[in-house]
Amino acid sequence: MRIVLLGPAGAGKGTQAARLAELLGIPPLSTGDMLRAAVLAGTPVGLKAKEAMDRGDLVSDEMVVEIISDRIGKPDARRGFILDGFPRTVVQAGALDALLAGSGLALDAVIEFKVDEAALLARIMGRAREAEAEGMPTRNDDNAEIFRTRFDAYRRQCVPLSAYYADKGYLRVVDGLLPRDDVTRQLLPFLNC
Ligand code: AMP
């Protein structure tokens, strides 16, 4: 199956992507994780992406489309994948459709995680505090001000994505504020599980 999870940062996409990946035996692919790894490794992509990521802005469409195009071509993604954090713009969505169509493939489901902004802020701040308390490294972009920039970027650029996928008849919506297990239960019927 080829699945896209849509929703702002902190909406629980990563958690559900990991669960679905285990259930379906296909890899979860997060462009945020790939970009953070590139930043840590100091690759040319990482160096280019770091500034936009630290500000909470999106990196260029070209950069993420290239990363995803390479990644979904790998053998472990042949049977399918769960995209978390990609696409984030209509341009990226069009590029994904074209990439898949080039191999005679299409998406199976696009699932949007709906969450309220204030509840999301509390969740993100909680995640940062927990990581700090455990002595884990905190993400540069997990603070209230950067969160607002990221949420604004989401609203501006990602909301049109819902319309894009709704027009194609792919879009399904879950309540991202429910407990994790309830969100998983909401997801499964969309995947024929
Ligand atoms: P995430 O972990 O998905 O919240 O992503 C962290 C950051 O990586 C975002 O705030 C963006 O700067 C960048 N990023 C991740 N995925 C994308 C994407 N599909 N398009 C543009 N920027 C992205």
UniProtKB/TrEMBL annotation:
PROSITE patterns linked: ADENYLATE_KINASE
Catalysed transformations (reactions): AMP + ATP = 2 ADP
Enzyme Commission no: 2.7.4.3
Keyword Thylakoid tagged: no
Pfam family, one: ADK
Localization per record: Cytoplasm
GO cellular component entries: cytoplasm
GO biological process, one term: AMP salvage
Positions bound to ATP: 10-15, 127, 178
Chain positions recorded as AMP binding sites: 31, 36, 57-59, 85-88, 92, 139, 150
Record InterPro entries: Adenyl_kin_sub (IPR006259), Adenylat/UMP-CMP_kin (IPR000850), Adenylat_kinase_CS (IPR033690), P-loop_NTPase (IPR027417)
HAMAP family: Adenylate_kinase_Adk (MF_00235)
The family this protein is said to belong to: Belongs to the adenylate kinase family.
Function per UniProt: Catalyzes the reversible transfer of the terminal phosphate group between ATP and AMP. Plays an important role in cellular energy homeostasis and in adenine nucleotide metabolism.
Subunit text: Monomer.
Name this protein carries in UniProt: Adenylate kinase
